[in-house]
Amino acid sequence: MNHTGRIQAQRTSGFTLIEVMLLIVILSVASMYIILTIPTRVLSDSAQDASEKFVLQMHHAREQAMLRNHVYGIEFKDDKYTFYRWHNENWVELVQPPLVETRVSEHVDLDFEPGDFRILDNMTEGRDTVFGRDVRRASSDDEEPPRPNVLIFESTEFVPFRLRFTAHDPNERSFVIDGRSGIQIEREEVEGWQ
């Protein structure tokens, strides 16, 4: 084969710009079809999904507390929980995934049960101002300051708690996150409070 024959063979073995663009259009249309036909159930619709997501967020917060030498807090209110970081004597809400405010589905109830944490009971002076528990810290009179229920320390230990994700549908499972040790978290399927 001569030199021009080799060049012609090389040119015919590749893709043209039009072929690549056509492939991109076909893949885009196929992707849109798949996205539009996915069931409407979102990841955290079930108690199982919501409990798994919380465990992953908790592990991430503990890793960040240790790596960055920060104290983190989680505030539970109604059907949502919010992550905070203690910075300059204030709680600062985290807005970067995965540690963002998370609302559970309307198909799931979220119940928080505090554990025993006696460290603050031994303090006589200024105990209400530790980690922003002083209600005067609000930026306005109408706004209530964050009051995290769970603190995650730099050592990765945390304030003990239990958290229940209860499915409204009796055919779906409910889950409890047991962090009463303050050191490790266990997630288990349950039928009722134990």
UniProtKB/TrEMBL annotation:
Annotated localization: Cell inner membrane
Gene3D superfamilies per record: minor pseudopilin epsh domain
Protein's membrane topology: Single-pass membrane protein
UniProt keyword Coiled coil, yes or no: no
Cellular component annotations (GO), alphabetically ordered: plasma membrane; type II protein secretion system complex
Main location: membrane
Keywords linked to the UniProt accession: Cell inner membrane, Cell membrane, Membrane, Methylation, Transmembrane, Transmembrane helix
Matches recorded under SUPFAM superfamilies: Pili subunits (SSF54523)
One annotated GO biological process: protein secretion by the type II secretion system
Domain (General secretion pathway GspH): residue spans on this chain: 50-177
Positions of transmembrane segments: 12-36
Family statement drawn from the similarity comment of this UniProt entry: Belongs to the GSP H family.
Protein name, as recorded: Type II secretion system protein H
Organism: Aliidiomarina halalkaliphila
